[in-house]
Amino acid sequence: MEYGKISRRGDGNQSLGKAGDKDVLLLISGGVDSTVVAALLLKALPPEKVYLMYIDTGLMRKNETEEVRETCLLSALEDITIADASYKFSGSPLQGG
User: Fold this and answer.
1) 41 part of a folded domain
2) Does some domain include residue 37?
3) Which of 29, 35, 46, 80 has a 20 to 30 Å separation from 64 between CA atoms?
């Protein structure tokens, strides 16, 4: 398997060289754009170099975190960290009261 190549606007020789041998962290939203980027990264780089993370701020739509988890599993993005950071936002001015 060849790593480090990614096609961009028809140029199949475009290199993903900036990552080099470094690890890559991608924060995903569960939407189409970040899911596609995650899939491309996993195709272009060794999977052990790609770390996917979704952060639940507690301000998501109802059941959104579970939908993101399911989308990732269906898209073969199995190695994802889902962080519950809702406690950091629970005292914010956005909280009703």
Assistant:
1) yes
2) yes
3) 46
